[in-house]
Write a structure and sequence with these properties.
Elements lengths: L1 E7 L9 E6 L10 E6 L4 E11 L13 E2 L8 H14 L3 H5 L11 E7 L10 H9 L11 H12 L3 E7 L6 E8 L3 H7 L6 H13 L2 E2 H8 L4 H8 L3 E8 L17 H12 L4 E6 L5 H14 L3 E5 L7 H10 L4 E4 L5 H12 L5 E4 L11 E7 L16 H12 L2 E6 L4 H8 L4 E5 L11 E6 H6 L8 H12 L3 E5 L9 E3 L16 E3 L4 E3 L6 E3 L12 E3 L4 H11 L5 E4 L9 H10 L5 E4 L12 E6 L13 H13 L10 E6 L5 H7 L3 H14 L7 E9 L5 H15 L5 E3 L3 E2 L7 E9 L4 H14 L1 H6 L3 E6 L1
Parallel strand pairs: 11-16, 11-17, 12-14, 12-15, 13-14, 15-16, 18-28, 19-26, 19-27, 25-26, 27-28
Antiparallel strand pairs: 1-2, 1-4, 3-4, 3-5, 6-7, 8-9, 8-10, 20-24, 21-22, 22-23, 29-32, 29-33, 30-32, 31-32
Helix pairs in contact: 1-13, 9-10, 19-20, 20-21, 22-23
The structure holds a DNA duplex.
Pfam family, one: Helicase_C
Subunit structure: Component of the replication restart primosome.
Enzyme class: isomerase
Length: 793
DNA sequence: TCTAGATGGCAT
DNA sequence: TGCCATCTAGAA
């Protein structure tokens, strides 16, 4: 007798584990196949994924049997299964968190029971109603479940072999549904008959709809800058109706073939080096515009020639159209693009195509690292420093680490590319763990580096200029508008939090222990460090210079937009941020508008920093370079350097050259200065020293242990028990830890956390300890309904 | 999360 | 005693 361990997809912490079933003697099964199993008290049918098959079963438990095998071939290859286990161990996640991303898109647990009727069967008189119903439901038997009479009839029909049941596993393809708004046909008569008085806003809505007919609700809200309530009240008055509209997403179009570019000497050296490297990981460090993409293409070509397959990861697929175009052009017909705007159905098709070996290259965002390619030999991670690859709330793994592991398992190569590599990555390359290749020339002959100037905003304030634009930036803007050249204004609000800064001297209130800016909590009027939990009273005067112009900082893109419109009323302005690009194709629209010069000034956040190449953009203005300096994160300087470098790269993509104006209250900050000189090496050296001084990564590894619950009472008690146990269980190595920090309550969920800091060489041991301690405290955690998660940051 | 089965109140 | 609403533990 054999025993099968099965993973059943769900996101309920309480039942997140593997389940063991007996394997019937005559059943053939391999790990990675899906099976149908009885589950729960009612033995409901569920789909499970076979994780492993064992010869013995030791525990006393009355095991159930597997009902049916659903696949002929494993849908998950061995390396992916192993990767799943590896992630689970490394990141201490739930099964669901480490196995779900591996599975085909859609919901594997939905099983349809389809009736198959013997062809020649003629229904008896009392069965006619049932057969009609059956036809109406397209032979799907789900309607029988709540009808006792039919249940008996179905059993009888099965016994007399008239009816047999076919189980169909369907990936749940949920169409994208958005709300649309439309005037009711008789709205005019309703208004006149009911003698209704409409408010100003309601009137605006009616007029808009008279003009446009049917409009998406989100569009209406945005266009008229109103809230939902006028629409709601119009609906209750019976003047308009709100409808569900299905949005159909278009898959990626084919593009024209791109021609081969010849490589310069530097590129050839890197290309050969990467191919011949004996190490799993190569880091390609090259300026923006130094031709990294060309090397990606060449290396991919070689790998494919040898019968391999390639995955290309990009930070956000919608933002890198040029990269995709070039791959599609070069490897026409053999590329699958996992676009974030694909519908689930299209996504599923792409998955199938990949699994069937119909493509050589998969391009996609982070989750494409699990693409089911059978001959995978190369993974390319473009802009490897990008934070979307790294461990965070929604992503319980580090994409680069996973890619490295997968390439180790398959004996392939991982190629990391960036103009501003992650400090940790560069450190590893420097230590010789990765091979390093540098590109220092620009690939396009004649393209000049932009002229970058830093403006001290404190001096502007002394001069009496309280506007958000410095004189220099305003002057440049006027010039470029005159010349009909285009301008990008950038506001790096990434990770924006409420830090407190002095407008006179630029001083920012930082934590005494952590060198990290403190967060202002408005309701309690205190400053708190989100790293160690220590607090300070909010100040009314700057502790540095005594000025009373000290307050929490915050400028929004909307504010910038208003100011631009005020100063340059005739300029055509477009704003691009999360709010304006949620709509389908809105990114492409903005892209095309800028490309066709329908826009003079483009205002936006970090989305602008990535991959936008426009010849006619000759001025980039950074409104407040400081904003990203004070996010409560040890990476603040790194993030600032990255953003400034990337956004500066948007100016002067052609022979026209360009200007960059960086406004800052801290013009001497090293990340700003080095970014303005495009000097990665020196930035790296300086940053590394500081990291060493404060023992931040790469010299340590940080782990957050989070406790959340709807019930406030026991969280801190349990958290401190766990912390104490972890500290007790540590042997032979040094562990730093913070106190227990109470976080802001979000959606009525209370959350507390503590942070552990450990030598990276002992991360495995510490992970094991945490795992052990969590198992030890399991009863307590479950009793008080506390959810624990571990973040490796 | 889902639901079989236990529990207990209440009408008959 | 039967019936239903509500609660609760367990999922292999």
């Amino acid at each position: 007798m054999k025993y099968v361990n099965v993973y059943i997809q769900n996101n309920i912490a309480k039942i997140d584990r593997l389940y063991t079933y007996k394997l019937p003697e005559n059943m053939e099964l391999k790990p990675g196949m899906r099976v149908q199993v009885p589950f729960g008290k009612g033995d409901r049918n569920r789909v499970g994924l076979v994780i492993s098959i064992e010869e013995e079963y030791k525990l006393e438990y009355d095991l159930k049997e597997i009902i049916k095998v659903l696949d002929y071939e494993p849908i998950l290859s061995e390396d992916l299964l192993e990767l799943g286990f590896w992630m689970k161990e490394k990141y201490l996640t739930k099964y669901n968190q480490s196995f779900s991303p591996l599975l085909p898109p859609g919901d594997i647990k939905v099983i349809q029971k389809i009736a198959v009727i013997k062809e020649e069967y003629v229904p008896k008189e009392d069965e006619v109603a049932f057969f009609k119903e059956l036809e109406k439901n397209k032979y799907n038997l789900s309607f029988v479940d709540d009808n006792l009479q039919y249940g008996k009839l179905v059993r009888d029909l099965i016994n007399s072999s008239v009816l047999s049941i076919e189980y169909k596993v369907e990936t749940q393809i949920s169409a994208k549904i958005l709300k649309a708004v439309k005037l009711k046909e008789d709205y005019l008569s309703r208004i006149s008959k009911g003698n209704l008085k409409l408010t100003e806003k309601q009137l605006k809505v009616v007029e808009f709809l008279q003009d446009k007919g049917e409009v998406l609700r989100s569009e209406l809200l945005k266009e008229l800058e109103i809230s939902d309530s006028p629409i709601k009240s119009l609906e209750t008055k019976g003047i308009l109706e709100i409808l569900d509209r299905e949005i159909i997403r278009e898959p990626y179009e084919e593009v024209a073939a791109t021609k081969l570019n010849t490589l310069n000497m530097e590129q050839i050296k890197a290309f050969r080096g990467i191919l011949n490297s004996k190490k799993t990981v190569s880091l390609l460090h090259g300026l923006t515009g130094s031709g990294k993409t060309e090397i990606y293409l060449k290396v991919s070509e070689e790998i494919i020639k040898e019968g391999g397959q390639v995955i290309v990861l990009v930070p956000e697929i919608g933002l890198t159209p040029q990269m995709i175009e070039r791959f599609m052009g070069r490897f026409s017909g053999r590329v699958s693009v996992l676009h974030s705007k694909l519908s689930s159905g299209e996504r599923y098709d792409q998955w199938q195509k990949t699994k069937n070996g119909e493509v050589d290259i998969v391009i996609g965002a982070r989750s494409a690292v699990f693409a089911p390619l059978n001959r995978l030999k190369l993974i390319i991670v473009d802009e490897e420093h990008d934070s979307s690859y790294r461990f965070h709330n929604a992503l319980r793994y580090d994409t680069v680490e996973v890619a490295e592991k997968r390439m180790e398992l398959l004996e392939g190569k991982l190629l990391l590319g960036s103009a501003t590599p992650d400090i940790i990555t560069y450190y590893k390359a420097e230590k010789g763990l990765y091979d390093l290749f540098e590109l220092k020339q620009r690939a396009v002959v004649g393209a000049r580096l932009p002229d970058i100037k830093i403006v001290d905003m404190k001096k502007e304030l002394i001069k009496g200029n309280t506007s958000i634009f410095s004189e220099l930036l305003r002057k440049h803007m006027a010039e470029k508008l005159e010349k009909k050249e285009q301008i990008i204004l950038f506001l790096n609000r990434r990770g924006f939090s409420n830090f407190v800064s002095c407008r006179s001297c630029g001083h920012v209130i930082k934590c005494d222990n952590c060198d990290i800016s403190m967060t202002y909590h408005k309701n309690t009027n205190i400053l708190r460090c989100h790293y160690c939990g220590s607090t300070k009273k909010m100040v009314s005067r700057c502790p540095e210079c005594g000025s009373k112009f000290i307050k929490q900082f915050g400028v929004g893109t909307q504010q910038v937009e208003e100011e631009v419109k005020r100063i340059f009323p005739r300029a055509k302005v477009l704003r691009m941020d999360r709010d304006t690009t949620v709509q389908k194709n809105s990114y492409d629209e903005i892209y095309n508008k800028v490309k066709n010069r329908e826009v003079d000034i483009l205002i936006g956040t970090q989305m602008l920093a990535k991959g936008l190449d426009f010849e006619n953009v000759t001025l980039v203005g950074v409104i407040a370079a400081d904003l990203s300096l004070y996010i409560s994160d040890y990476r603040a300087n790194e993030t600032t350097f990255e953003l400034l470098t990337q956004v500066s790269g948007r100016a002067g993509r052609s022979q026209k050259g360009g200007d960059v104006v960086i406004q800052s209250y801290n013009p001497d900050n090293y990340s700003i200065v080095y970014a303005s000189n495009t000097d990665y090496e020196n930035f790296y050296k300086r940053e590394l020293k500081i990291r060493e001084q404060y023992n931040y990564p790469p010299f340590s590894k940080l782990i957050n242990v989070n406790f959340s619950s709807e019930d406030e009472r026991y969280i801190d008690e349990v958290a401190s028990d766990v912390l104490l146990d972890i500290v007790k269980s540590v042997g032979g190595y040094k562990l730093e830890y913070t106190r227990i920090i109470r976080m802001l309550r979000i959606k009525n969920i209370f959350k507390s956390k503590f942070t552990l800091k450990v030598d990276p060489d002992y991360i495995k041991e510490l992970t094991e300890s945490i795992k052990g301690v969590l198992i030890k405290n399991k009863d307590k955690i479950e009793k008080y309904n506390i959810y624990v998660d571990v973040e490796f940051i």
